[in-house]
Write a structure and sequence with these properties.
By secondary structure, the protein is an alpha/beta fold. Helix content is about 45%, strand content about 20%. The chain has one domain: Divalent-metal-dependent TIM barrel enzymes (TIM Barrel), CATH 3.20.20.150. Helix 1 packs parallel to helix 3 and helix 5 packs across helix 6. It is globular, with a radius of gyration of 18 Å.
């Protein structure tokens, strides 16, 4: 598996700084935060970004995150896709393989109605993304069984799962549900740990570095390894306590703790 860091983990810092310090820490990939990319493009070009990535020997496998696609009216959907496309163009140029698409629950509808809407909209979005050679990693925020059903119903090779260890744990923490996901549909992983709190009280601010909390990351990594997952493990943490630290300290700790958990699981992480 490959080491990666989501730029939310280094939120106060720039995309330029993130690339430099991620490489120094040992990471192989950067999951680009779209708001940081937007700010970068105010001064620089996609060519400049590719040069930075190439110089640091860092890949950019995924752009994070987009949303508001499934349930809005068609005109709003089209407007949001048009806005998305300028970032898809950059992603295609720098070799990004995925975008993170945030799921929207059931949108106040029955499951059957919501599933129909997901099928309609995500198939439409997939057709657009084909021209950029980018696929959709759908991030679900609750229990996994409904989204497993939804992705199977969409039946599109360019649409799969983003598994976020925090959302999985807060959703139900059922390892058997992870085992039910078809191996070929696991596109990308967000990995972190969290504080020992009741699930209903957990918020993003309770995320911590890998191995410092209660999420069974060793078991999760073993399941991913059994499924033959060879992709990226992207450390994603929203924690102000960390954000107040130097970017060097954040990236070094994020990398070290990720590698340590991999060693405990008997999984090679590069």
């Amino acid at each position: 598996m490959l080491s990666c860091l989501n730029e939310a983990t280094t939120m106060p810092y720039s995309l330029n700084d993130d690339i430099h310090y991620l490489a120094l820490a040992g990471f192989k990939g950067i999951e680009i935060w779209v708001d940081k990319l937007k700010k970068f493009l105010e001064k620089y070009s996609k060519e400049d970004l590719k040069k930075l990535l190439d110089k640091a020997n860092i890949s950019a496998p995924c752009l994070c995150a987009f949303g508001g696609i499934v349930f809005p009216p068609q005109d709003i959907f089209e407007k949001r896709v048009k806005e998305m496309e300028k970032y898809l163009e950059v992603g295609n140029f720098i070799g990004s393989k995925y975008i993170v698409l945030c799921a929207e629950g059931f949108g106040g509808k029955s499951f059957e109605e919501a599933r129909e809407r997901y099928v309609l909209r995500l198939r439409e979005l997939s057709r657009i993304l084909e021209s950029y050679d980018i696929m959709i990693a759908l991030e679900w925020f609750d229990e996994l069984p409904p989204v497993i059903d939804i992705v199977k119903s969409i039946d599109d090779e360019n649409i799969g799962f983003l598994i976020d260890t925090f959302h999985w744990y807060r959703g139900d923490g059922n390892l058997d549900n992870l085992r039910k996901i078809p191996s070929y549909k696991i596109f990308f992983i967000h990995i972190c740990d969290c504080e020992d709190l009741p699930r209903e009280k957990l918020e993003d601010k309770h995320r911590v570095y890998c191995g410092l909390g209660v999420i069974p990351l060793v078991d999760i990594l073993k399941i991913l390894d059994e499924k033959g997952y060879k992709g990226y493990l992207s450390v994603e943490i929203f924690r102000k306590e960390y954000w107040r630290q130097s970017i060097e300290k954040i990236t070094v700790e994020a990398y070290k703790t990720l590698i340590d958990v991999g060693l405990k699981a008997g999984v090679e992480i590069r």
